[in-house]
Amino acid sequence: MNEQIKRTMEALKRNNMVPFYAENGQEALEILKSLIGKDDLIGLGGSVTLKEIGATALVRGGGYNIIDRYDENLTNEERMETLRKGLLSDVFLTSSNAISEKGELINVDGFGNRGAALVYGPKSVIVVVGKNKIVKNAEEGFERIKKIAAPKNCQRLNKNNYCTYKEKCMALLNGEHSLSDGCAGESRICCSYIVQSYQLIKDRIKVIICNCDLGY
Prior knowledge:
By secondary structure, the protein is α/β, with parallel strands linked by helices. The protein has a single domain, classed as 3-Layer(aba) Sandwich (Rossmann fold), CATH 3.40.50.10420. It has helices at 3-14, 25-34, 48-53, 55-60, 76-85, 113-119, 138-156, 162-166, and strands at residues 18-22, 41-44, 65-66, 91-94, 98-100, 105-109, 124-130, 134-135, 192-196, 205-210. It has a six-stranded parallel β-sheet with strand order 1-10-7-4-2-3, sandwiched between helices. The chain has a four-stranded mixed β-sheet with strand order 8-5-6-9, sandwiched between helices.
């Protein structure tokens, strides 16, 4: 375990979150499996990381009680309803756009369902992150979102916006910028910024940090 991961895990403990260390994606999946039960109602945040370690396939593969946002038969209205239902899950699985050495989870959402679940609702939240997402502080986390996470997710989701075509947020063109700067319209995904700096319900949030690169 390198010193940066160690500092981050110690900070998470101070912030009333439970850190776990995994050497690779397979170890991260085994830890995640130990934290969920067959009787739990499981909600899912949109996450490349969860897909990469096999967590999405695991819970969708049978034997688990899930709110399945990825069901291809859902209409747009039904899909939005599954996102709302995720806030009432027993366990919510997600990743984070960034995690700081101060033990902060830094995220941006379009609809806000993932950020809302991190803040309140599900009884337990399991966050899986690769070491590539560790930053020094929240400010660096916001920069990471605008330079890496948002452009790559816009490309993945085929959004028709500046991020997709230029591979960076247009707000970066102006030097100094606020979080609200950027593109506008229905294709924007940077709508709600959430920083989880402390958890009042001790141990509600579990963070699995993997010693490899995962997701965006």
